[in-house]
Amino acid sequence: MPRHVLVLAALAALPPAMLPRPAQAREAITVWAIGEEGKKIRVMADLFERAHPEIEVRTQAIPWDAAEAKLLTAVVGEMTPDVVQLGTTYVPKFAAMEALLPLDGRLDRSTAIGRKDFFPGPLQTGTYRGRLYGVPWYIDTWVLYYRSDLLREAHLPGPPRTWEELRVAGLRLRGPERYAIALSPSDGATFAVFAAQAGAPILVDGRPSVRDPRFLEALRYYVSLFDDRLAPRGEARDVNLFQAFERGLFPMMIGGPWMLTLIDKECPKLRGRWSVAPLPRGRRASSFVGGSVLSIFRRSRRPELAWRFIEYLSRPENQLRWYELSTTLPSTRTAWASERLRGDPKVAVFGEQLRTAEAPPAIPEWEELRDKLGRDYLEKFVYHAKDPARSLDSLDAELRAILAKRDPARSQSSALKLVVLGLVALLLLGGAGVLLARRSRRQPDGGGLDVRDVRSARRVPYLFLFPALAVLSVFLFLPIVASFLISLTDWNIYALSDWKRLTVTGLANYRTLLWELHPSELAAVGSWWGYLAFWNYLGDPVFWRALFNTFVFVLLGVPLSIVTSLLAATALNQAFLRGKSLFRVGYFLPVVTTMVAVAVVWRWLYNPRLGLINQLLEALGLPGQEWLGNPRLALPALILMAVWKNFGYNMIIFVAGLQAIPERYYEAAKIDGAGTLQRFRHVTLPLLSPTLTFVSIMTVIGYFQFFAEPYVMTGGGPLNSTMSIVLYMYNHGFKFFNLGYASAIAFILFAFIGLFTLGQRRLSRRTGAA
CA distances (Å), 152 to each of 147, 156, 176, 307, in order? Predict the structure, then answer.
């Protein structure tokens, strides 16, 4: 008898209670974590599954630089996980989108964790409008890192504890090749800590407090650190912070707990020669608290299981396990009472700082507000381009305008919005259709048979064009129309997940950009030239500065790029030149090199202390320059780098155009006695004019889209001297989520590019006719 028959017979003889039961299907939850935490959370998930075998945890890691965009895409696409790690500044944005599940009731009912288990500051980072949306997972706070050996050499008894002691220590530490502390002239977040220490936080009860005299006191103190050369303006923009700390360029710096292991790793020679201390206090002690929280998305199918996972990670023993695994600081008081943390004097300083640390304002506009404070005001105060006392009214007005986007108006009905936007879309599509129809009805200029007179033949070309037109319509034309419709609205973070929360504003975005007056800005000018300068009567001042920078980049960069490309192509086209292929590859290599790699090389070339350019200048007896820290030199420095990187592309096109010119024309010119320059002027340039026109148009369009260079190299600074239109559009669209405003910027740029292209075409036609 077959074996399987015997097995079945034996099973049939067993009583039902002894029969094997099928394995129960486990319920699964999905957890997304960011950065290094996303790679290591699998260990904690395995421990959780051992304690809860009925639950399966599926983890996914996402990088920090793409986390916000990926999470927003998941929310809009309704494909969110159950549990998500959020940076503390992410919480207000996703809570405002109504994408997160409130956790107040679950935390209050929990027997594993409670509100008293967390420090007030970290718990506040997961709160938005009085409701808890995230449980603190790990925390960061800022403390003062200092070189204890250098402080002893300066005869200082210890790290500074107050602002006055910080100034005294800085004056003793500074020298010809040394500053006292690493601070940024445009970092609004760092200055916000100084403002809080002065007793005047940027926001009080959700309103700006910049008119408080204590805020002005903090401003003047912060600016004085740069005036007394205790902190660098632009001199150390390209210096590696850890190398500068090791070399003693910065004996003190402000940083978080992640730097504890990085300093030992990057600066092994400094072991035992550095330490940490709480931040020097002003009128009061304060610091910012950050880190990450664990949240549950509103669309989670298993919120109870997701909460059990959050409870598990928040238990003190698991917080300590996570600390050993990732070196991130625990968020619960019980974990901080452990000897593992209290026994490390450097880690204990962070625990001391947490007692006074405060959460940044829990508003979705915090990043935009911080950027406005830092880039548009603080940096100008440090460079003395604005007077703090005269500019506080303007700063207050602009901060209030940013905050006014909260609680968007819902007075417009959905039907009205659809009708208005639909009519605009129909007008656009109808106008485009009329133009195409008029163009298709034009008669040919010359003789011959016009196939359009035959109805059947008139439809044939459209059958072949339909696939391409369909693809272009879906991925190009319709998005252009949709972008223009968005530019007529106030689409922002509040309406990103629910279009009903947007308001149709018409041309308000264009008016704000182009011609809206700023009386408070005019009052802060303070000079007769400022009152006469026309740009003070225009709209968004940063937009106009970005437009000016973009035009300078085009007007200087395009001729340099074309001339360099043409000269290189002419040289490489010579018959007697050996190794032409090698030179062509070498000149073209920067074009295919990534912008990040090019930026790293050029940042070192422009380095004010170690850069090759300054070393060459000093060898010639000329002083070195702050290439990227000087507002007058930063944009020319980027133009030079862009020309070097991009001229190889046009060079290849010019080489092809030169090789297409028949040699007999040059031979005839030689017989007539024409020299090299005459042949180039009267033979090469006229016959190369179609190629030159194409290259000019494409180069102008490319240089108008000036983005990668300032984004990687300078971030638009200093003093917005390298801010471009595309970078400004990117900041509003993808950093601040002012999608309507960013769309308006895009269409203004489109208009300028279109005008330049039409002008170049007309000029080339006239040149060709002549």
Answer: 9, 6, 19, 51
Amino acid at 229: R
Q: Once rounded to an integer, what is the mean pLDDT over residues 172-183?
A: 90
Give whole-number Cα distances, 48 to 28, 55, 80, 85, in Å: 12, 8, 21, 17
Tell me which of 11 and 25 has the higher pLDDT. 25
Question: Residue 12 contacts by C-beta under 8 Å, 6 or more apart in sequence?
Answer: none
Q: Residue 582 burial (CB < 10 Å; 0-12/13-18/19+)?
A: exposed
pLDDT band at 7 (very low <50, low <70, confident <90, very high): very low
Q: What angle do CA 198, 279, 177 make, to 5 degrees?
A: 105
Residues 6+ apart with CB under 8 A from 258: 140, 327, 328
Largest CA distance in the chain: 114
Q: Is it the case that residue 532 has pLDDT exceeding 80?
A: no
pLDDT digits (tens, 9 = 90+) for 546-568: 999 999 999 999 999 999 999 98
- Region 324-328: what's the mean pLDDT? 87
HEC string of 632-644 equals CCHHHHHHHHHHH
Q: Tell me the Cα Rg of the chain.
A: 32
What is the C-alpha end-to-end distance of the chain, expressed in Å? 103
DSSP 217-230: HHHHHHHHHHHTTS
For the segment 484-497, the average pLDDT, to the nearest whole number, is 84
Q: Which residues contact 561 (CB under 8 A, 6 or more apart)?
A: 642, 643, 646, 647, 650, 699, 703
For residue 529, what pLDDT band results from cuts at 50, 70 and 90?
very low
Separation between Cα atoms, residue 451 and residue 438, nearest integer Å: 17
20: tokens are 């094997």
